Amino acid sequence: MTALTLSTAAAAGLRADALVIGVAKSPRGGKGLAVAPGAEAVDQAYDGRLAGLLETLGASGAEGEVTKLPAPDGFKAPLVVAVGLGTQPDEDGEYDAEALRRAAGVAARALTGTKKAAFALPVADAAALGAVAEGVLLGAYTFDAYKDSGRQAGGAAKDKDGKAPLAEAAILGGKPRDKAYKAALERATAVVEELNRARDLVNTPPNDLNPEAFAAVAQAAAKEHGIKVQVLDEKALAKGGYGGILGVGGGSASAPRLVKLTYKHSKAKKHLAFVGKGITYDSGGISLKPAGHNETMKCDMSGAAAVFAAVVAAARLGLEVNVTGWLALAENMPSGSAVRPGDVLRMYSGKTVEVLNTDAEGRLVLGDALWAASEEKPDAIVDVATLTGAMVLALGNRTFGVMANDDAFRAAIVEAAQEVGEESWPMPLPEHLRKGMDSPVADIANMGERMGGGLVAGLFLREFVGEGITWAHLDIAGPAFNEGGPFGYTPKGGTGSGVRTLVRLAELTAAGDLG
């Protein structure tokens, strides 16, 4: 991953291959380009004509825009990279953290193949510095483990054009000896390293990441970071009565697993449980997905990857909160031993489920894991899953839906997501939709009304949350896997959706600011 440093050096005197500055649109309908704080030295070297020069080159200050020009005389960096920040804040206002995060990510990606870049973006405080650091690390991400031509002799990843990611970034304006700035940099590094690990897992082909392999990755990370880990294999699952996980995984040659990760802090007063859907490949089972709908189904374990990353990040940050992560891992395949439409499964809770569609499998593995999590009586449970196509239809490819059995908790999650730059939207759990899951042969069916399918799935999950426990469900089916081109700090492929929101929830809980 890109090495980050803080620097108090002057922009002109820092040795680097490129100098990144910010530009913005003038506010309130004003005309012209505004040069953002941090770029003063470059502007002065151009005799105050930097904005006009960039406009001549076509720059408008829009988010995601990159304009390159030769550095002025006297600068040790030969190249200036001007990145758009969107609309300039009003007087005395500060640039939004997400605008800084995206701009840094765009610049880092534009500088693929560069050894060192200096980032002179607006860093008004430690929070802004943290946002820039996150953006650099997120934007420089590359996954090429399966491309021989994409690796250097030393093993460094390269992009599709054979260029290595930005190797080093120095953030100007940071205060290396200031505790707040150092903490912001350390937090950004820990969170993004784990988020990028989640991206790696999502991008790994399913022939190399089955439930057993995923569990092994979790075990190794747990050992490294002092996290207690328990793995239930197929025999333990059968003995325990985990009918949902066993039913979904029964059609595959790769047996299912339930992984429990436990991070505890001696000063913790609260306990959070995170539950992740981990379908390492989803063919749909007997209810087979058609061609065009199964090519990216390696990403159906994104929820488990997010939970795994969040627990490890919480441990690395030493948060004063107990966090338990549950990874419900299975591969959903058709075979003679696969669960069939019409089968009835007895879940870990004892409740029976009539399976009407084997492609509605995520809710079955989550049901078992939610009940297991509930047995420990945590203060709150949050599950994360690429659960329904209906949520993608409702909210698009960049926004996840949030459902909960407590309106205040749902609002807190949406606010936390917004704070860290993840797009989310509160969704209801209409009681009238529950009746559609009534079954003549079981306690509940795994399908209900077609319209509002994402909400139906949320209602199904609620059935497996222990009484009196605050719970929320994040349906990340849209933003978990980017099939289009990269944008901002988001790459093509696995995105790590949900990780930052879960970490922020843990931080807020540790600080006593979340219930």
What does this structure look like?
A hairpin with a 5-residue loop joins strand 12 and strand 13. Helix 4 runs parallel beside helix 5 (179-203) and helix 8 (243-249) runs antiparallel to helix 10. The model has no long low-confidence stretch (mean pLDDT 95). The protein starts with a strand and ends in a 5-residue tail after the last helix. It contains 14 helices and 20 strands. The protein is 32% helix and 21% strand. The chain has an eight-stranded mixed sheet with strand order 8-9-11-10-14-18-15-16, with helices on both faces. Strands 1, 2, 3, 4, 5, 6 and 7 form a seven-stranded mixed sheet that branches. Strands 12-13-17 form a three-stranded mixed sheet. By secondary structure, the protein is α/β, with parallel strands linked by helices. The chain has helices at 40-45, 50-56, 97-110, 126-139, 179-203, 211-224, 234-240, 243-249, 302-317, 362-374, 389-395, 407-420, 453-462, 499-510; strands at 3-7, 18-25, 33-35, 66-70, 79-87, 116-120, 168-172, 228-232, 257-263, 271-282, 322-332, 344-346, 352-354, 380-385, 400-404, 424-426, 444-445, 470-475, 481-482, 493-494.
How much of the residues is beta strand, in percent? 15-25%
- What is the arithmetic mean of pLDDT? 95
For the biggest sheet, the summary is: 8 strands, mixed
Please give the order of strands in the largest beta sheet.
8-9-11-10-14-18-15-16
Termini gap = 36 Å
Helix content: 25-40%
Helix-and-strand structural type: alpha/beta
Q: Spans with pLDDT under 50 lasting ≥5 residues?
A: none
Please count the helical segments. Answer: 14
Determine Rg (CA atoms, Å): 24 Å
Instruction: Count the beta strands.
Output: 20
Shape: elongated
